[in-house]
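Page 42, continued from yesterday. The earlier attempt failed because a stray header line got pasted into the input along with the sequence. Redoing it now with the clean sequence only.
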Amino acid sequence: KESSAASDVYKRQVLRLSYGLDCEKHSAKEIADVLGIKGTSSYVRISQLKKQGIQKLKDTVPHSQVVDYL
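This time it went through. Structure tokens are written below.
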């Protein structure tokens, strides 16, 4: 199982790549490839990480800042 710090890095990367924060937007499959997540349900894992990342932002960052990006 991945550590919390590693999980946070994945979440950050997933959000960055999904929304194209400093790069082009990527699909879930492309993100899975970039992060080395393999398997037929890799896109599901990307969706989970994206959801968790958004929730963490909502819990820790002022609402107005989150809404500006999303």
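Notes: Residues 42-60 form the longest helix (19 residues).
Reminder to self: strip header lines before submitting.
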